[in-house]
């Protein structure tokens, strides 16, 4: 059986039916999230992101991350508590607080939102930043928040993106500031049509032919390595898989999909990543070959290896607050 077809969004029924109650609940949740974002933008952002920045960039980021981290916490609460989506973490156990470059596969338009679930468990949710397409930065309210928390916009035109990336990344080199920087090297979400084009290009150019991920674009990744090389602790290689259907944004809002989100995370010391252009390109290509195999095994077995590395939100709330390391991470965030 072609497992990619089994998990294709267009061929698998939704996990939960879209009922009137789910529609009403989803609209109310989205309204609350939009309203609280708007209130944060009106009452918090001018002071934390503008006025305080004149005196200290470090404390400006600290205050902004604290307040908007509270707002970002609403998303994992929506996913896991209201929608009852099970989020399963696998792979390495991660320290509570590190400066990290995350590289992840891009299965669907909402992959990046589930990284908030991992960041929340590490007490770093207010400090996670994304490199994402510039059109998202133009969204009303959400886009304004993305600007305030310093997400990096790209237009997928390297002659324009390189300057923006280097300029913004150069402001993230202070080790005093906690940082998770998330990059999706595929550059776009996965579809069967895009996969066929990627495979054709790979076959014509002597590159690995991948089934479950697209060939990674390496220029942005190499710039991140170059600019941040002296200020980061690790790379987290994150592989995301869904059961039983890849969700879209409105699936998340109404709680019809996914039933489970699985994340496999491998921690790699930053100092072990090769710095030369050719070696870094080959390293990233190899990581995506490993992702391809991980996803193939996930589709066959229903889970990633070494799963259960992080607790659920109930455990975070009750047990985590008694853990001194988590306490320190939350107080320092």
Automatic annotation (TrEMBL):
<keyword id="KW-1133">Transmembrane helix</keyword>
<comment type="pathway">
    <text>Phospholipid metabolism; CDP-diacylglycerol biosynthesis; CDP-diacylglycerol from sn-glycerol 3-phosphate: step 2/3.</text>
</comment>
<dbReference type="Pfam" id="PF01553">
    <property type="entry name" value="Acyltransferase"/>
</dbReference>
<feature type="transmembrane region" description="Helical">
    <location>
        <begin position="63"/>
        <end position="79"/>
    </location>
</feature>
<comment type="pathway">
    <text>Lipid metabolism.</text>
</comment>
<feature type="transmembrane region" description="Helical">
    <location>
        <begin position="23"/>
        <end position="43"/>
    </location>
</feature>
<dbReference type="GO" id="GO:0003841">
    <property type="term" value="F:1-acylglycerol-3-phosphate O-acyltransferase activity"/>
</dbReference>
<keyword id="KW-0812">Transmembrane</keyword>
<comment type="similarity">
    <text>Belongs to the 1-acyl-sn-glycerol-3-phosphate acyltransferase family.</text>
</comment>
<protein>
    <recommendedName>
        <fullName>1-acylglycerol-3-phosphate O-acyltransferase</fullName>
        <ecNumber>2.3.1.51</ecNumber>
    </recommendedName>
</protein>
<feature type="domain" description="Phospholipid/glycerol acyltransferase">
    <location>
        <begin position="100"/>
        <end position="222"/>
    </location>
</feature>
<dbReference type="Pfam" id="PF16076">
    <property type="entry name" value="Acyltransf_C"/>
</dbReference>
<dbReference type="GO" id="GO:0012505">
    <property type="term" value="C:endomembrane system"/>
</dbReference>
<keyword id="KW-0472">Membrane</keyword>
<dbReference type="InterPro" id="IPR002123">
    <property type="entry name" value="Plipid/glycerol_acylTrfase"/>
</dbReference>
<keyword id="KW-0808">Transferase</keyword>
<dbReference type="InterPro" id="IPR032098">
    <property type="entry name" value="Acyltransf_C"/>
</dbReference>
<keyword id="KW-0012">Acyltransferase</keyword>
């Amino acid at each position: 059986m072609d497992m990619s077809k089994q998990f294709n969004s267009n061929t698998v029924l939704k996990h939960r039916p879209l009922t009137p109650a789910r529609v009403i609940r989803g609209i109310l949740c989205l309204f609350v999230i939009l309203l609280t974002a708007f209130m944060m933008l009106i009452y918090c952002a001018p002071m934390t992101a503008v006025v305080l920045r004149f005196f200290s960039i470090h404390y400006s980021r600290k205050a902004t991350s604290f307040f908007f981290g509270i707002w970002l916490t609403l998303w994992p609460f929506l996913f896991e508590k209201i929608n009852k989506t099970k989020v399963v973490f696998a792979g390495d156990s991660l320290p509570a607080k590190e400066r990290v470059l995350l590289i992840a596969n891009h299965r669907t338009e909402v992959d990046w939102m589930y990284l908030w679930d991992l960041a929340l468990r590490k007490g770093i949710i207010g400090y996670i930043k994304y490199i994402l397409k510039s059109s998202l930065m133009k969204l009303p309210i959400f886009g304004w928040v993305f600007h305030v928390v310093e997400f990096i916009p790209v237009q997928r035109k390297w002659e324009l993106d390189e300057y923006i990336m280097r300029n913004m990344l150069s402001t993230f080199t202070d080790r005093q500031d906690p940082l998770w920087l998330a990059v999706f090297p595929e550059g776009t979400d996965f579809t069967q049509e895009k996969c066929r084009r990627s495979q054709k290009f790979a076959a014509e150019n002597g590159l690995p032919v991948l089934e479950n991920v697209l060939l990674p674009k390496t220029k942005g990744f190499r710039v991140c390595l170059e600019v941040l090389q002296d200020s980061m602790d690790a790379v987290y290689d994150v592989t995301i898989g869904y059961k039983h259907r890849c969700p879209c944004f409105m699936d998340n809002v109404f709680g019809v999909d996914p039933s489970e989100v699985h994340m496999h995370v491998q921690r790699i010391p930053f100092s072990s990543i090769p710095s030369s252009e050719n070696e870094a390109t080959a390293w990233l290509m190899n990581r995506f070959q490993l992702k391809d195999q991980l996803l193939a095994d996930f589709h066959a077995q229903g889970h990633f290896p070494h799963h259960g590395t992080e607790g659920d939100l109930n455990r975070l709330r009750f047990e985590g607050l008694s853990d001194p390391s988590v306490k320190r991470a939350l107080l320092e965030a």
